[in-house]
Amino acid sequence: MVKYGYMNLIEALRLQVEWGADEALLDAPQDRRAPAPAASAGAPAQAGRVHAPRHVARHATVLPAGPAQAAKVAEGCESLEALQAALAGFTGCALRDTATQLVFADGAADARLVVVGEAPGAEEDRAGRPFVGPAGQLLDKMLGSIGLERAAVRIINTVPWRPPGDRPPTEAEVALCLPFLLRHIALVRPRALLLLGAVAARAVLPEPERGLGIRRLRGAWRQVEIPGLAAPVACLPSYHPAYLLRMPSAKAEAWRDLLQLREFLESLPAQG
Ligand code: URA
C-alpha cells in the first residue's frame, strides 16, 4: 500500500488540478474501465438521445478521428436533433473523455442571430448548457441591453465539451469540431453571427483574418460563406464576456459593437 505524507498529498492534488481534475463530481470513485451494464431487454430507446458508453469514449482517445470523419458525420445531419445525436455519439474528440457531458446549444432553433463562444467551463459542463456561469450572466445582460432575449438567439461554442481545467481549446480541437459548428450554423440559417473572442473569430473567419487578434478584428463586419447556406452570413467579432469581466475598460468598445449589431438586426425585413 502506498503511504502518502502530507506534502505528497498536496503534490498529488496539485497534479490532479494540472490535469484538469479540479472538482469532485461523485462521492464514490467510479471504475470507468468496467464494462457498461447490459441494457435491460425490451427497454425502450430514448428518442433523440444517443449516449455512447464510456468505454467507447476511452478507446477514442487512442484512435482519434480526424476532421474529415467529423465532416462526414456532420454533413449527414439534416436536423439539429440529428446533429446533437451525432455529436453525442462522436468519439473522435478526446475532450469528451474528460467532460461530464455534451454542451450542445441553447436558444431558438431558427434564431436570426447565432452567438459563438469559445468552450464550456465548469458550470456549463455541470448544467449541459452554454454560457450559464459569470460570463454567461454578462452575455445575457449584453444581449438584453440591445433588446435581445437569450431565448431568441442561438448560443453555441467552438467545441461542445469543456476542456480540462478550463484551458482554451487547442487549434486541433477547434479544427476537429469545426464541421459540427458549421453544420449547426447551416441548420439554424441565421442572418448574423456574433463571434465572441479570438478563438471563435479564428474558427469561423477565413484567412487572412484568421491570424489577427481580436482587438484588430472586433467591430468590423465580415461576410463569411458557410457550407450549406446559399448566401454568405454577416459576422461581427467582438470581445468575449469573460475578457470584459477581467478588463472592464474594454466594455465601451463592446458596447459600440452591440449597437452595430442592433442596427444590423433592425435593418432586416420582418420574419415571415
Ligand atoms: N465561455 C464560453 O466561451 N462558453 C461558454 O459556454 C461559457 C463560457
Task: From the 3D structure, determine the CATH topology.
Answer: Uracil-DNA Glycosylase, subunit E
Please outline the major beta sheet: 6 strands, mixed
In whole angstroms, the N-to-C terminal distance is 70 Å
- Which CATH-level-2 architecture? 3-Layer(aba) Sandwich
Return the CATH class: Alpha Beta
Bound molecules: uracil
Unreliable runs: 36-64
Instruction: Spell out the helices and strands N to C.
Output: HHHHHEEHHEHEHHEEHH
Number of helices: 12
* Alpha carbon gyration radius: 20 Å
Strand content: 5-15%
Describe how the helices and strands are arranged.
Layout lengths: L5 H14 L34 H9 L4 H9 L4 H9 L6 H4 L7 E2 L5 E5 L4 H6 L6 H12 L8 E4 L13 H18 L3 E5 H8 L9 H4 L4 E3 L8 E6 L2 H6 L4 H17 L5
Parallel strand pairs: 2-3, 2-4, 4-6
Antiparallel strand pairs: 1-3, 5-6
The protein binds uracil.
Short description:
This protein is an alpha/beta fold. It has helices spanning 6-19, 54-62, 67-75, 80-88, 95-98, 122-127, 134-145, 171-188, 197-204, 214-217, 241-246, 251-267; strands spanning 106-107, 113-117, 154-157, 192-196, 222-224, 233-238.
Pick out its properties.
272 residues, alpha/beta, Uracil-DNA Glycosylase, subunit E, 12 helices, 9% strand
Describe the protein's architecture and organization.
By secondary structure, this protein is of the alpha/beta class. It has one domain (67-267): Uracil-DNA glycosylase-like domain (Uracil-DNA Glycosylase, subunit E), CATH 3.40.470. The chain contains twelve helices and six strands. The chain has helices at 6-19, 54-62, 67-75, 80-88, 95-98, 122-127, 134-145, 171-188, 197-204, 214-217, 241-246, 251-267, and strands at residues 106-107, 113-117, 154-157, 192-196, 222-224, 233-238. The radius of gyration is 20 Å and the shape is globular. The termini are far apart. 34% of the residues are buried. It binds uracil. Uracil binds at residues 117-121, 124, 130-131, 133, 135-136, 157, 242.
